[in-house]
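Changelog note: in this version the structure field was regenerated for every chain. One regenerated record is shown below for reference.
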Amino acid sequence: MFLQTSSTIGMADGQDMQKQLMMLTFLDLLFVPIYLAATLFYMQAVIDGRTLTPMQSWLMGVRCWFRLFATFFLSAIATALGLMLMIIPGIYVGVRLALANAICVLENKGPMDAMKESWSATDGMFWTLFKGLALIYGGLFVVEVILSPLVEPGSLISMLISVVLDFFNVLGVIFSYRVYRAWRDKEPVRDEAVL
């Protein structure tokens, strides 16, 4: 995200900016589902006590790319529609669908089934997921807001910061996976509202 905003800010030609932003978005859509699936497969192998090399997990991620992309895309649309209604419905929908990617990848379910199961699974775990995801993604957003004006758009340091921030997005995947495992293993999840 940092790269998308900072590398296009300094461009005078709006058409070039739009092309560059579309290319970055395309690359994100191409590789993020593979990266996400590889991370989930690797974590599951560690929990199961199996040996899985990073290359094996990446290849497994490639095999389920379309299914995960569809889940990722449909969840994003549902969240965006909720955000258009008002911010709170979008956040609510996004949190309730937070387990859909893990369900899709690890249980080999289609997008709609994964989203439905995530919706029912997160009943009673909303605040746990919300607090964890808000802390992780909110923290990354704050770092991005602080660093963005300090770095020249399109510079090498800007791209390096973007790569580092994109890498830390995996923390949200790890947290969601941990909640998924707790739900699947029937571990008690203490869900309290923060008021």
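Spot check on this record: Residues 14-48 form the longest helix (35 residues). The chain has one domain: 2-184.
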